[in-house]
Amino acid sequence: MIVLFFPIQPTSFQPEDVGLPFTTDMSGLKVAMQVHYNNPDRLSKAEEKFRSWKLKKIDTLIVSFVTAFVDDSGMRFLLTDKVRKHDSGSIMTGIFSLDYTLTMPPGLRNFHLSAQCSDQCTASNIPPDGITVFSSFVHMHTRGRSGVARQFRGTEEILPPLGAELNYDFNFQQTRPLLPYRKVLPGDRIIVECNFTTQQETGPIYGGEGTTEEMCLVFLYYYPKIDLNTCGSRFKIKPYLKAIGLDSKELMKQGKFPQMRSDVADQMISMEISKARRALIQNFASPINSFLTKTPWTAKSVNSLLEYYSQFDYLGICNVKNKNPEKTLIMNDKPPKIAPYANPAQTC
Hints:
Distance between the termini: 41 Å
Number of helices: 8
Structural class: alpha+beta
Strand order of the largest sheet: 9-6-12-3-13-14-15
Strand content: 25-35%
């Protein structure tokens, strides 16, 4: 990843002695720009304009002749041949369950989620002198209220957080500088926390890339550049199913393998390697969504899910990219139990 851009984000800069490398060894490579659009009602420009006027009836004849939205967004990079001292890099941390294993019940004023960049991952991928973090970017979608990235060295928390948005606004996302810059050393642990509200929702919200879904991510920008690019957590399928009250036998009945023995189903669901997980996630998405939307949410079912997430029962994801093919290390990982972050300015 080279750079991120989100709604209303101001221009971001790097320290004077740090630069984003565009070097000769990148010759022949391509830079791909990924753009996410959100137009769930499939409105054209004219339709949106008419709706903004709050007309009771839209002239369908006019609308039918109007072209759809045309996007002209892009990015501009300013390059120089005066190479700076340090190459910069970015590490994506947070929750990597972009699927139903991240489920938010409806009607909650606050829903808290945590993840971590494991000390095991930093110990094996950050050099002895460490890296220097100079800015961060917190990212959630429209239900996000606050997000932080906390740094721990052993049991000691190093304050202030590496990144924090304590009054998060999806429509005004920005990269925030970290002053003074902060060293992250091998063996440090980074805890990411996000708070959401689902008070206005009538059904469950799942993790995903779409604006109508949710994320909990923090991007850390640092120097000098290393091979580590992703460090976070992913929720396990089997304990998640137990938390929502579905066993593998019942799930198999609703899925595509109705004749499979329950013990074989258990083995499949326990598999957390990427290819097997993707297949299961895709196969069970519809029956799980059907179950959760048809089953009334009670205090007991909400608490069961909250307890599951609070137990940190997840897999550690440690992704390294170098000259060899991209390597992902998946670890059974449990951080120490800590209280959620409290803003010192709001404590008495």
